[in-house]
Amino acid sequence: xxxxxxxxxxxxxxxxxxxxxxxxxxxxxxxxxxxxxxxxxxxxxxxxxxxxxxxxxxxxxxxxxxxxxxxxxxxxxxxxxxxxxxxxxxxxxxxxxxxxxxxxxxxxxxxxxxxxxxxxxxxxxxxxxxxxxxxxxxxxxxxxxxxxxxxxxxxxxxxxxxxxxxxxxxxxxxxxxxxxxxxxxxxxxxxxxxxxxxxxxxxxxxxxxxxxxxxxxxxxxxxxxxxxxxxxxxxxxxxxxxxxxxxxxxxxxxxxxxxxxxxxxxxxxxxxxxxxxxxxxxxxxxxxxxxxxxxxxxxxxxxxxxxxxxxxxxxxxxxxxxxxxxxxxxxxxxxxxxxxxxxxxxxxxxxxxxxxxxxxxxxxxxxxxxxxxxxxxxxxxxxxxxxxxxxxxxxxxxxxxxxxxxxxxxxxxxxxxxxxxxxxxxxxxxxxxxxxxxxxxxxxxxxxxxxxxxxxxxxxxxxxxxxxxxxxxxxxxxxxxxxxxxxxxxxxxxxxxxxxxxxxxxxxxxxxxxxxxxxxxxxxxxxxxxxxxxxxxxxxxxxxxxxxxxxxxxxxxxxxxxxxxxxxxxxxxxxxxxxxxxxxxxxxxxxxxxxxxxxxxxxxxxxxxxxxxxxxxxxxxxxxxxxxxxxxxxxxxxxxxxxxxxxxxxxxxxxxxxxxxxxxxxxxxxxxxxxxxxxxxxxxxxxxxxxxxxxxxxxxxxxxxxxxxxxxxxx
Length: 715
Ligand SMILES: [Zn+2]
What we know:
By secondary structure, this protein is mainly α. The chain has 26 helices and 7 strands. It has helices at residues 55-78, 85-94, 97-112, 116-137, 140-151, 160-176, 182-212, 228-240, 265-276, 288-304, 310-314, 323-354, 363-378, 382-385, 391-407, 491-508, 524-535, 541-547, 559-568, 573-590, 602-612, 630-633, 642-660, 666-677, 685-693, 700-705; strands at 215-217, 246-248, 410-414, 425-430, 436-445, 455-460, 471-478. The strands form 2 sheets. It has a 5-stranded mixed beta sheet with strand order 3-4-5-7-6, sandwiched between helices. The structure holds zinc ion.
C-alpha cells in the first residue's frame, strides 16, 4: 500500500528505456574496455560488478550508451529496405543495451545509496536522457516505419506477443507525440526537458529537506514512551550524524511511526510539524515553486498532445483508461472510508476526554491514542509482538516460505556477488525443478542517502530475445538496530517485505521474448496488484505460524496474540484508507488542471481541491502533502496514485478467488504464475485478469478485507 515500485525518474528497459539526442558523440573519450559497463557483466546472470564500478564510470558509460543507441536507431530509421517486424520492431528491442545496462545500475544506486557526485551527475544527465527518449519517439522516419508495420499488422501473421509489441510500440510513439507537427514537437521536447530537470531537483531538495527535518533533542525525557530499542536507535542516529543526544529521522509519509509511542504531546506536535512543513521553510529545500510549475507544465504538455488535461493523457494506456473512471472509483470509496475514520476519531476523542486531556484531537495525537484504543480493544502492544518478527526469520520462514508453498521456489544466500553497500544481501532463486530462476538482492535498512519508502526494481530485465535472466532487488527503510542487536520488525514492516517481494516475483517470473513487455513493465494501475496480492500471505495461517516465532526462544506466537494481530489488521482502517484516498484525489486534482490555469499556490490549492471533494479533514491529513509527494513529482506516479487503490480492488478480488479455490496450493500458485505473473505486458491487462479470474473484479472483497462493509461495523 505504502510503497513505491520505483523512485527513479527513468524507466529502464525496453527500447525507450531511456535516452538523449543532445550529447556530442565525441564526449565519450574515456569510454573503453576498462569501463565496467563496457561489456555485459561476466558475473552470474550478468549481475552488476559493484566491486569494479566507480562513481567516475557512470557518466562515460551513459553518454556512450546514448550515442550508441542513437546510432542504432538511426540505422533502423534510415534502412532502405521496406519496414518489417524484424528490421524495425525487433531491432528497436535490441537497441540501447549499453544504456540499459548502465542506467539500471545508476537508477538503483542513486535511489538507494546516493552521494554528492552521483547526485550532481543525475542532475546533468536527467534532461539529456529525457531528450534522448524524445529523439527516438519523435523521429518521423522511425515512426513512419512503426506506423507502416502497425497498419499492416493483421496480415503479417505475427504471434500474439509480437502483435502485442507492434500495438504497444505504435501506441507509445503516438502517446509520446509522434503525430505532432514539427513546431509542436519542439515545444514538447522543451517541456519534457524542463519536467525532467524539475523532477530531479524536487527529489534532491526533498531528500535534503527530509534529512534536515529530523527531530533532534538532548533531553531524554522529551522521548518518554519510546522503547529502549528505539531509544538506542535514536542515540545511534545521533552518533551517525555526529550530534549529541537523540535523532529521530523523518520517514517520507506525513505520519511518523514514533508518534504512536511518544507520550509528550509537545514532542509529538514538533515531530509532526517537522514532517508537515519539511519542504515549506522558504529556504533552498522548499519545493513549492517546483510543484506549481510541474503541475502547470504537465497541463501544457497535455494540451499539445491533444488532451484536456494531463491525467487524461496519462491514463489513456492505463487499465482505468480515463480520469473520470478513476474519480468515479475514488468517489465510491470515499464515503465509507471517511465515515469509518470519523467513528475512529470519536473513539479517540472519548479516550482523550476520559483521561481528562482537555484538548481536541489533532493529527499528531491520532497514532498515540489509536495505539491505546488498539491496546484497549485488542490488548495489543507493538513492543509485545515485535520479538516475533525478527527480520531474517520473517524473510526465510515467511516471505520465502510462502513463495515455496505457492510456486515451489527455493532460495540460497550467496556472499560472492559484489554489492553497493554492506547492508545489501544477495540470494540465488531456484525454480521448482532446481534450475536457477533469478538473483534477488535486498537492502532493508534506512540510510540518510536512501530515498524514503520501499521499492523494487531490476538490475537486469528478463528477455528471451536478449538471453537475459532477471536480477531483481528490493529496498526498504526499516529502522536499523544497534550493532549486535536483532532487527525486530513491526507488523507493518513485515507486510512491506511481502509487498515488495510480490513485485520481485512479478519480475522474477517474467517469461517473455521482448524486453519492453517483460515483468513489471505494465500499467501503473496494474503493477501494484501482484505486490498487494502477496501481502495477503503474511496473515495466511499456515504462513503466519511458520514465521511468527520468538527470536530468543523460538516459541510460536501464542494463538491469542496471533489472533489479535490479525484482528487488529482491520483496526484504524478508516484512517489508513482515508489518508490514501485523500492523497490519490489530491494527485488527480493537480493533474486535471486545465492548461490555461494560473500558477497555483500549493498550500491554497491543496485546501481548495480537497474541500471540493469533502476531504479536507483536519485530523486525517493526506498521506503526503503536495510539497513532499515524491510519487507524483519525483517518481512515476503522476496522475497515478489512485493505482494503489485500484490495484487493491484487483488483489483483494484475487485473494478471494484463492480462498474460494482451496487457498495456498501449488496448483493455484502455478496457474496464477502461468496466466498472470509470468506474462508481463504481453496481453491486454484487463483481459489477462478476466481470463485468470473468470470475470470482472468488484469492490466488495476490498471493502470486506478493509473491514468497511456495513456488517463489519462495531466489530
Ligand atoms: Zn508497490
